[in-house]
Amino acid sequence: MSTRQTAPEETDASVVVVDYGLGNLRSVSRGLERAGASVTISDDPEALDDADGIVLPGVGAFSEGMENAGPFRDALAEAADAGKPVFGICLGMQMLLDSSEESTRAGQGEAHGLGLIPGTNVRFDADLDVKVPHMGWNELDVQRDHPLVDGVDGQYAYFVHSYYAEPDDEHAVVATTDYGVHFPSIVANEAGNVFGTQFHPEKSGETGLRILRNFVDICVESDA
């Protein structure tokens, strides 16, 4: 097990970035530091216990992500149940759901997600007149209130993905983005402490930094 800790001169919250072998750990960590967090990158599930908030990053395949993150499954579920903020980014957001079409399409059988937000992940329909993967800047259309999206309605964020979340409960959709279909680009659980962005806030300029600052504020205000 390994843990690496970095912190800006003034910190508002302690955040653990989960290291399960997939994800832009350094860029996510730098973004969180700019947002005011003390950041620990760790592959030890026990590191989640004392954190004010948890970030699950990710780039790659759903099945590989779930296999690698297996040791964190119980710790993430316990943190979520305790009300601790859990923030999934890109693949990390997809892993918050129950499953993904990606695994069955790849002939790998069904891979079970974390199940923290009921639903599945689906691929952009081949009949849509769009290129897949969806890559580049696109607009965020906020659908309901959530502290993560304070000040970002109508702003643009950076996406790289072929699959997107389809939550069972439409109230789980916090924001949508139009790419041949209006897909959920930000989702959250009913309690509001587990949420994710399909885009990369760490690559989304001032909009992304605002979202990361909102996340840090959520961590500060959380009692978990």
UniProtKB/TrEMBL annotation:
Catalytic activity: 5-[(5-phospho-1-deoxy-D-ribulos-1-ylimino)methylamino]-1-(5-phospho-beta-D-ribosyl)imidazole-4-carboxamide + L-glutamine = D-erythro-1-(imidazol-4-yl)glycerol 3-phosphate + 5-amino-1-(5-phospho-beta-D-ribosyl)imidazole-4-carboxamide + L-glutamate + H(+); L-glutamine + H2O = L-glutamate + NH4(+)
Alphabetized GO MF terms: glutaminase activity; imidazoleglycerol-phosphate synthase activity; lyase activity
Major location (coarse): cytoplasm
Domain spans labelled Glutamine amidotransferase: 16-216
SMART domains: GATase_5 (SM01211)
UniProt subcellular location: Cytoplasm
Alphabetized InterPro entries for the sequence: Class_I_gatase-like, GATASE, Imidazole-glycPsynth_HisH
E.C. code: 4.3.2.10, 3.5.1.2
Pathway: Amino-acid biosynthesis; L-histidine biosynthesis; L-histidine from 5-phospho-alpha-D-ribose 1-diphosphate: step 5/9
One example of a Gene Ontology biological process annotation: L-histidine biosynthetic process
Gene Ontology annotations for the cellular component aspect, listed alphabetically: cytoplasm
UniProt keywords, alphabetically: Amino-acid biosynthesis, Cytoplasm, Glutamine amidotransferase, Histidine biosynthesis, Hydrolase, Lyase
Pfam (any one): GATase
Active site per UniProt: 90 (nucleophile), 200, 202
PANTHER family: IMIDAZOLE GLYCEROL PHOSPHATE SYNTHASE SUBUNIT HISH (PTHR42701:SF1)
Role, per record: IGPS catalyzes the conversion of PRFAR and glutamine to IGP, AICAR and glutamate. The HisH subunit catalyzes the hydrolysis of glutamine to glutamate and ammonia as part of the synthesis of IGP and AICAR. The resulting ammonia molecule is channeled to the active site of HisF.
Quaternary structure note: Heterodimer of HisH and HisF.
Name listed for the protein in its UniProt record: Imidazole glycerol phosphate synthase subunit HisH
Source organism (scientific name): Halospeciosus flavus
Taxonomic classification: Archaea, Methanobacteriati, Methanobacteriota, Stenosarchaea group, Halobacteria
